[in-house]
Amino acid sequence: MTKFFLLRPTAARIRHLPARYATAALAAITACGLSVQAAQADQITVFAAASLKDAMDVAARDFEAESGHDLTISYAGSSSLARQISQGAPADLFISANVTWMDVLQDDGQILPETRVDLLANTLVLIAPTDATPPTVNEVKDLAGYLNGRRLAMGLVNAVPAGIYGKAALEDLGQWDALAPLVAQADNVRAALALVALGEAPLGIVYGSDAQAEPKVQVAMTFDPAGHAPIRYPAAVIKGQNEAPATELLNWLQQDAAKQIFFDHGFSALDGS
Fold it and tell me: Could you tell me the pTM of the whole model?
């Protein structure tokens, strides 16, 4: 097999060239360097749960600066993202807000199972607008009575992870049947957060990280984690896409510096710390 080698002229050689040739040589070297850099950079498309947005935006900027890769991130409810991937959406990495939707993709052969890892944990909280008086301890025991016909904002209770966790927590408290007619279901947890922040709902159920990200809401209570399934964020590389750069990103997200970004935004370690 014939091999071709590109001999790049050194600075000493360039200095001995006539001016017009030296200029052309320098231009060629610059173009070569740019083309090599471009060849090494990859475009990585990430599908991430909506609750990750603030932290993931920061993490993405740091990763791009370190790696030279470019990230495109689509945020939505985990159920919506998983369905899009199942239908062929060109995602390279998926980060879900619960294990169920990752299980669906794994069972369908959509992910590389050896790359699957739980990245983070979270808490579930009841929120109210900051300019409102939150329910007292006694009122929390009867949220339907406190609402008095008003709405409780939650993610879709049969699809969005935060909604699924929220329904389970309310069932554990024995309040779901009374509250079900009052629930305003949103497409994702950030939409539920916005309903409370805008004053369109007096109460909502979101993640602790969401409440930290929005100054217009306050935490009225934190739900007992024993009352719902553990809140985990599994991540995995999508099979058949940009597997190598996506794996690089996933490995980077597991490093201490990257995890600290998420901890600073209200997420917690898998051991609850």
Answer: 0.81
